[in-house]
Design goal:
- The complex is a heterodimer of chains A (118) and B (109).
- Chain A is built from no helices and 11 strands.
- Chain A is globular.
- With 118 residues, chain A is mostly beta strands.
- In chain B, strands 2, 4, 5, 6, 9, 10 and 11 form a 7-stranded mixed beta sheet that branches. In chain B, strands 1-3-8-7 form a 4-stranded antiparallel beta sheet, with no helix packed on it.
- Classes of the chains: A mainly beta (118), B mainly beta (109).
- Chains A and B meet through β5 and β10 of A and β4, β5, β9 and β10 of B.
Amino acid sequence: QVQLVESGGGVVQPGRSLRLSCAATGFTFSSYGMHWVRQAPGKGLEWVAVIWYDGSNKYYADSVKGRFTISRDNSKNTVNLQMNSLRVEDTAVYFCARLGRLWSLDYWAQGTLVTVSS
Amino acid sequence: EIVLTQSPGTLSLSPGERATLSCRASQSVSGNYLAWYQQKPGQAPRLLIYGASNRATGIPDRFSGSGSGADFTLTISRLEPEDFAVYYCQQYGSSPLFTFGPGTKVDIK
């Protein structure tokens, strides 16, 4: 069965960096695009970034463009989110998710909390 | 930039009742690439509907999606106790590439 497991969340000071990883099992990882989506405490879902199945294309939300970088390693079945110049407003639970049929997000990890605070 | 608006913000219903949730886009959603998700507290979202009207794997047939262009609807024909949750719509195609609506909370009356 499809399983996505994140790691790397935690508490970080404003302006610092953090790297999230998401390990995938149960499907042919190299055939699927992957997303990061976040949810600030008590708020709705915000799409963050997507990477194509082969890494050839990457797209970002305006709120993170130039600060966050999505990448993947198809030999290790992982997708990463490098977050630089973190701001208090980046505090959220971050989910990785698989790009599914007709541009939906069909499988989601359980989420990892990132807290940006001094 | 496309904006998704969901209404109502909160829907208070009793088990067994019908729920009708609306998602309206500020412009037409290309290819009707519109999906619906259910999220319960402390859990990840779960895909319900993709391509406006296709049920995802394992989703009960009491959930149905309809609509096209800029107006979409999620209908839950008869609410079960486990259906009380927050529902989000999501579009693909317009800048930003993916967008979620603000959500509709379905709670117990």
